[in-house]
Each structure stands twice: as C-alpha cells, then as structure tokens.
Amino acid sequence: MNEDAYTLRACVQAGMRCVLVHGPGLPESGYIQVPSEVETIFVEDLNNVETMLSALARAGMVDRKFTCVQTSDEEPLVATAALGMILGAPAMSPAVAMLFRDKWLQKQVVSEIGVPVARSRVIDDIHHVDPSVFDGFAKAVLKPIARGGTQRTSVIRSREDLVAASTAMRRSGVPTRTFVLEEFVDGAEWVVNGVVFDGAVQFFGVGVYSEPCLTTVSTHSAVQVETLDPTTDADAYDLVRPTVAATLGALGLRSGVFHMELFVPADGRPPVFGECAARRGGGMTQEVVQRKFGVDLGAAAVACAAGNDPKIEVVIAPETVGSTSLVNKAGVLVQCPTVEQLEALPGVEYARVELPYGSRIEESLAGTWQRAGQALVTGSTPGEFRARRDEVVRWFDERLVVAPQGASHAELRTWQAAHWPDIDSRFGTYRPRDFSSATG
Ligand SMILES: Nc1ncnc2c1ncn2[C@@H]1O[C@H](COP(=O)(O)OP(=O)(O)OP(=O)(O)O)[C@@H](O)[C@H]1O
Ligand SMILES: [Mg+2]
C-alpha cells in the first residue's frame, strides 16, 4: 500500500506477485520507479477504505487470494489493516494499527505499563478550543493527533499562544481538526529502528538526532541522525532496551518494522517515550541501518507481513554511520550538485537529490520531509563523521543555486548577473549593422 522503493524491491527479490495500491503522489512526483513486475492500482485517497476497495473491485481483484496486505507508509496504516480484514488476507489488526496512529491513545497504553510519557490532552476540534486545556502546563507542544513529519507542530507557552494557533488554523482553513497538547519534554531526541517477529525484538539500532525534529523544522535546518554503536555505546542500548520491549508488547506489535522516538534527559533520568510508528523511519533510515547493521528493513517488513521469519543477521560495521538532509536557501531551484558529485566527497557513500530543477523551496519548512536531497555519511570516528557531515551540508549549500521567489524582474536581473556575469539581461539599443562592405 503506497509506493516505497525498498518494499517493492523486497517483493520483487522474494519473487512475490505484487499489487501496488497508490495515491496521486506517485504519478505527481514521478520520483519512485515502479518495477515492471508490479501491477499498480490508482486510488484517490489511501486513507479511505471505500476508494481502495472500489478500485480493487474495478480491477477484478477483490476475490484474489492475497498473501498479505502491507504498508510501509504512515498514513494508510489503519485503512490497510481494514482492507486486509475485508479481503480476508493476513494484515495488521486494525485495533493495533490505530494505536500506532493516534498519539493520545498510544501514550495512554504506554503510560499504563509505567514507562514515562509526556502528559497529553486531546483537543477534539482545534478550530474551537477551550484555552483552559493549557492549564497546568508551563510549556507544551501542540500537534495533530495522527500525522507525521512534524507537520503543524508548535510550542505553546500560554493560553494566548493556544488561542492564536487555533485562530490561525481556522483562518487558513487547515483541514486537520483533532490535535493533542502535550507537556514539553526536554532532552536529546533518540531514535530506535528495529524489527519484531512473533513477539520478540529481533534487532534494534539506536540513533541520535543532532537536534530535536521540532527545532530542525522551526529553524529550517538539516535533519541529521548519527547511529550509536552497540559495543562502544553499549550503555545507550542498555538504557533503551527495556523501554523498547515493554512498549512494543503493550502496543501489540508482534511482527513488523518499528521506528520509536525517545527523549533522553541529560541528568540520567530514564528515557521518556516520545512515539512509536509501525513502519520504517523516514529519511535515510533504510540505508543507514543497512550500512551500519547489515539489515534490510524493507525486506524485513515484507517477510514479517507475509508471516515469515525475517531471519535477521546483524553484521555491525565499525564506522560511525549517519545521514543528513540537504536543505537550506529558499527559492526556486535552478541548479545543485549531482548525486555523483556528492558521492565523490569524503565519507559520502550514497546520496539522493530529490528535487528537480524548477522546484520551489519554501521559506519555512512544513515538515521533516522537505529537503533538496540527502546524504549517507560515514566516518572512522564520531568526530570524523560529524566533520564530514557538516562539510557536505556546507558544500551543497554553497553550490545550490536558487532564484529568489516573488522577486521583481529587476531583482532577478541582479541575481542573474551575480551568477552568470557573461549574460547581459538589460535593454540593448539597436544599432544598424554596417552592410556597406557586403557584396552580391
Ligand atoms: N511532548 C513533546 N516534548 C518535546 N518535543 C516534542 C513533544 N512532542 C513532539 N515534540 C517534537 O516534535 C516532533 C514531532 O512530534 P512527533 O514525533 O510526536 O510527531 P510526528 O509528526 O509524527 O513525528 P515524525 O516527524 O517523527 O513523523 C518530535 O520529533 C519532537 O522534536
Ligand atoms: Mg516523530
């Protein structure tokens, strides 16, 4: 359900006959290439079971016997589970899927088993908010109850802030209505990516964001993850292990890939559960995990969904492995370095340039997925990794050519002259050519 290059790759490699149900995003972005072996079905809304069922019926597929129904995408998780039930095919249970979407329900379940979580309150309709919902918080985070990518997420410090956020969303007609208001949790943000099969955590890897995702989005900086090593950073693995096993058990995820976020206080207090998704993490999670641990999360997701033991064999690379997004100046993308040029930089083993020329890069980021590209970086030590990672970001930014948005033609002419001094874009007066020496 919905395009994911590594899920598709895994299906093809496993020799599975695969039907990809996708939304308008696939043809509109033109980015993911669907292998020719894969049948595709277009639906207008992947969160809507009716559209999916009808599209499958039109294609004559509702009576087909499917091995499983699976998604590696965040949003259609519950609809995918429901579709599996309707088609009589193995899939995640809708009740479990719901706990991996609704941030408030998820925290209730996790807090009941004694794992620290932020206090959380539901705002049914952000257009009509009772400001007293803020009372008792000194600093809070307002976010949609079931979205991803740090969309429409903001820090709220007072009743007035909350009312202002509500008014702004009502005025701009934001369609998302149900939000949660959570106590702000300090600390570093860690990420745990792993695989659970038959109720047992077969593998997990821990990473640290260079700064929390909310800071990244609000300051328009790069999303960066650095993987911790299970041997040299064994303390970090010991710290999170009990939380990982207990929360997955309580939430009922028995088989599949997961992506958990935790806040780790600097003063040694136990980690505070942030959230957990029943899918692979975004960004370069697939590549970073494959490089550091030798684990193909796309293949693991497909195996688990089909009820097969993913047979994870971890092979730990000694290097520090991580990733960074490449995003900086706002404007219309005119030119940027190529994948080949990026991969020629020290430690950059893999890169993606995700925006075609002509794309707009907005002043403010709508979420963690907005970027011009990404790079997987390695270093023989954490210090070397960080230096290389920072250098890629700087190097890319220096070579990123963006035209200012909303600029007057005069401003664009000045901008053009700065980049292409040989091209004159000003009015040149007509001077008749002298043809007097011409013959014939
Ligand atoms: N209670 C909180 N305290 C502090 N920061 C928070 C809190 N809740 C969310 N954040 C910040 O906002 C970001 C987005 O929140 P959250 O992870 O809950 O939602 P999301 O949009 O599903 O995330 P993702 O970007 O992982 O898809 C977090 O990564 C974190 O930086
Ligand atoms: Mg998150």
Task: Provide a compact summary of the structure.
By secondary structure, the protein is an alpha+beta fold. The protein has helices at 5-13, 25-29, 49-58, 77-87, 94-99, 103-112, 159-171, 213-218, 234-251, 285-293, 297-305, 339-343, 382-399, 409-419; strands at 19-22, 39-42, 120-123, 140-144, 154-156, 179-183, 188-197, 200-209, 224-227, 256-264, 272-277, 320-326, 331-335, 348-353, 360-361, 373-379, 401-403.
Name the ligand types. adenosine-5'-triphosphate, magnesium ion
Describe the strand arrangement of the main beta sheet, using strand numbers.
11-10-7-8-9-12-16-14
Q: Outline the biggest β-sheet.
A: 8 strands, antiparallel
Q: Provide the structure class.
A: alpha+beta
Helix content: 25-40%
Proportion of strand residues: 15-25%
Name the overall outline: globular
**Can you say what the CATH homologous superfamily of the largest domain is?**
ATP-grasp fold, B domain
CATH architecture grouping of the largest domain: 2-Layer Sandwich
Domain module count: 4
- State the helix count: 14
